[in-house]
Write a structure and sequence with these properties.
Blueprint: E1 31-32, H1 44-54, H2 66-76, E2 83-86, H3 88-100, E3 106-111, H4 116-124, E4 127-132, H5 141-146, E5 152-158, H6 170-179, E6 185-189, H7 204-208, E7 214-219, E8 232-235, H8 240-247, H9 255-266, H10 268-291, E9 303-306, H11 312-322, E10 324-325, E11 327-329, E12 333-337, H12 341-355
Parallel strand pairs: 1-10, 3-4, 3-5, 5-6, 6-7
Antiparallel strand pairs: 2-8, 7-8, 9-12, 11-12
This protein binds pyridoxal-5'-phosphate (PLP).
Protein name: Aromatic amino acid aminotransferase
Pfam families: Aminotran_1_2
GO molecular function: histidinol-phosphate transaminase activity
Length: about 350
């Protein structure tokens, strides 16, 4: 090869993009509490429907995702035209950026929050404006509203927030939405909605109805246990929903995911019972940790947050040796998914020993 051969020119925006650290996969028999997955295996009916559908995966899926979209519209009482599906809600979030933001534009979100936000923002070419959480782990909505400029195109509001689990109250969110200009899209990311038990926290689907600049993100990965099939959706007014259809990867939502999502909506009762069991485990874990003297934010999601600062990595290592893989954010804290009862017991044991 000649010396002057150059590598293909890539976009400068890709330089220095933070790497998405997927929850570590345990290499032993350890419990994986690092990705906020649902510990329950697929429901038999959902699995059977997927297996049946797998018999014809030589065919492309329905590109318009019509059957699932109709089912979602009926289920949530929204017009079908307001629904856009994608490869996980992170895929839909990326489409929202493609549809709204590019070089010179600004995207606001709280920090720390879902670690995909900085990555997908940078890929779009836009600039991240990270607004620190308050000392008690809440979104600083006043500071976020004050950060809006004429370059702002999109604001992510993660409710409840990943990784802290803290939920925003309806009053606070409404006050914030009232301050955001109507030409800025606010995306309420409700990946953990089904685990929320705090009645003061709003259902984004109620807030979006009379606000054309609000989009709601939901996923089948968490409460519905379909993380491996990659399907999520947004509910948004036109023209946002239409823009999501324009930016969709053709045939991106595969046929198994479509079938599984439909079957899951029909099996909502047993799935929500599982969520309730996880919520009860969350209460047990939080109470147990607090009894040991830990400060634990009031999580409304399927995980808990321990702000360990400089001792974060040490805690994660000790947890792993004890049989649970948690998610460390070095220098900040660990996020631990609520998993199997046995796994949660290990967390409580490790946390107790760590304090001694
Ligand atoms: C806040 C938040 N939004 C979105 C997602 C993406 O989920 P998925 O792409 O599996 O729908 C996650 C996953 O961890 C999350 O925590």
């Amino acid at each position: 090869m000649a010396d002057d051969v150059q590598t293909p020119k890539l976009r400068g925006a890709l330089r220095g993009i933070p790497v998405y650290k997927a929850g570590k996969i345990p290499d032993t028999s350890a419990f994986k509490l690092s990705s906020n997955e649902n510990p329950y295996p697929p429901l038999p009916g959902v699995l059977a429907a997927v297996q049946k559908s797998a018999e014809s995966f030589n065919r492309y899926p329905d590109m318009g995702v019509a059957a699932l979209t109709a089912e979602l519209a009926e289920h949530f009482g929204v017009p079908a035209e307001h629904i856009a599906t994608g490869t996980g809600s992170v895929g839909v979030a990326q489409q929202l950026l493609q549809a709204t933001s590019g070089p010179g534009d600004e995207v606001i979100y709280a920090w720390r929050s879902f670690e995909a936000y900085p990555i997908i923002t940078q890929i779009s070419g836009a600039t991240s404006i990270k607004v620190p959480l308050t000392p008690d782990e809440h979104h600083d909505l006043d500071a976020m509203a004050a950060a809006v400029t004429d370059r702002t195109r999109l604001i992510f509001v993660c409710n409840p927030n990943n990784p802290t689990g803290v939920a925003i109250s309806k009053d606070d969110l409404v006050r914030f939405l009232d301050r955001v200009p109507s030409d800025v899209l606010v995306v309420i990311d409700e990946a953990y909605r089904e685990f929320v038990r705090d009645d003061s926290s709003p259902d984004g689907l109620e807030l979006y109805r009379d606000r054309p600049n609000v989009a709601v993100l939901r996923t089948f990965s968490k409460a519905y246990g379909l993380a491996g099939l990659r399907i999520g959706f947004a509910v948004a007014h036109e023209p946002v929903a239409a823009a999501l259809r324009q930016t969709a990867v053709p045939f991106g939502v595969n046929s198994l995911a479509q079938v599984a999502a439909i079957e899951s909506l029909r099996a909502e009762k047993p799935l929500l019972e599982r969520c309730e069991a996880l919520v009860q485990e969350r209460t047990r874990v939080i109470e147990g940790l607090r009894a040991q003297g830990w400060t634990v934010p009031e999580s409304q999601a399927n995980f808990v947050w321990l702000r360990l600062g400089e001792r974060t990595v040490e805690f994660a290592a000790m947890a792993e040796v004890s049989g649970i893989v948690v998610r460390p954010f070095a220098g900040e804290g660990v996020r631990v998914t609520i998993g199997e009862v046995e796994a949660n017991d290990i967390l409580l044991r490790v946390a107790g020993e760590f304090r001694e």
